Amino acid sequence: MDIKNKQGCINRRDFFKIAGAGAAAAALAAAGSACSPAVKGREIPKDKMTYRINPKNGDKLSLLGYGMMRLPIVARSRGESLPDVNDIDQEAVNGLVDYAIEHGVNVFDTAPPYCKGFSEKSVGEALSRHPRSSYFVSTKMSNHRGDRNLQTAISMYRKSFENLQTDYIDYYFAHNVGSHEAFKIRFLDNGVLDFLFKEKEAGRIKNLGFTFHGDGEFFEWMAKEYPWDMTLVQLNYLDWENVLGGGMRTNVTAKRQYEILSEQNIPVWIMEPLMGGQLASPHFKARERMLQANHDASPASWAFRFVGSLPNVVTVLSGMTFMEHLQDNILTYSPLVPLTEAEKEMLTREITEISIQYRTINCTRCQYCMPCPYGINIPEVFAQYNRSMNEGNYPDDKQSDDYKRARRAFLVGMNRRVLPARQASRCINCELCLEFCPQRIRIPNEMRRIDKFIEELKIDTGQP
After folding, report:
1. Helix and strand counts by DSSP (H, E) for the chain
2. I want to staple 152 with a disulfide (CB 3.0 to 4.6 A). Which of 41, 147, 195, 464 is the partner?
3. Does the pLDDT value for residue 28 go beyond 60?
């Protein structure tokens, strides 16, 4: 299906057809349209992609990597998705992968739990239509839930090969490690790490690394203790020099993680350059400052230029659900224009200060907390709260002339995006979600805070 116009953008009708009405509405609210101003009218180059050479093996990796954690889904009601149901729109995924490869992207990253467990299979189907030499695929040992014995891990590992339709994996990660204790249980005592290194020796794993969320001392130990080929870390301009309190995933800045990896000559892979999309739609005061600096640049492009300007970064993973996301990011890296010192200072000082002042919840919508046994759509509740904050629809000052409008916008927006039966009021503080959140968000605490805030607004407006 040809879904692109002359500029390579998709039209509004086909955007909704592919994404599903609920998902598309959410994306349009954040992005503004099915073809952002940063993309509209501009040619998307096919031969200008910036590449980085992996110093460990000479691989030529596209600086833009495709993170397959937030794939497009088929039409669904009000943005809701049923647990354990594969609602990935495979035709849309195929089209996005084809477009990415055509425009120079050659890194594709997935994991067994992504998209309710269906991402690997979808990625395998899309990539298998291309020559194996035309892309690098990465996946992970995601044994942080359930049974952690060796046989279960081996089954997960072999299933990845089956799903991805390949007989070798280019880049394989020990997934979501953050402490000595958890690493010992998941990878050392059960022999999983020994197994993975043997698989690397056999050639079925070409490169072995780890992804990190957790303790800084442990991170430094990990970087020095084993001969890793790469490490995947969360890095963006907001994390660069800040360890924000109240639930951040780690006690070490992104800058220090980058420095440690550089000192150990470990190639750096980047995840969450947009912090789950938050930096693509920052607070409106931050957007105003960015427009002053460059009227044509999208907020996302600022974030991608920041991480891409770091010389030891070999690829930056982005979860690009829609064509406009992919096109905007391709433009940013085709070719990359590195940040000036003044631009870097603006992001790490001015924009970061605005972001900290107008606090949002540091949810990256990774879905690891899902499904909630009580039906709460945790990521979407947080996303709508953050969206209201960033768009100026957070009614916190009753004396403000804008309070009544913001109050209504907050309540209407929450009910449109999240079914009442899946909102914060359903949280019973079971804390089952806490173990799985890589950001270490105190999810029940935040749910109670949001629920209390909503109830106070309802009382003010007289809503039932």
Report:
1. 18, 10
2. 147
3. no
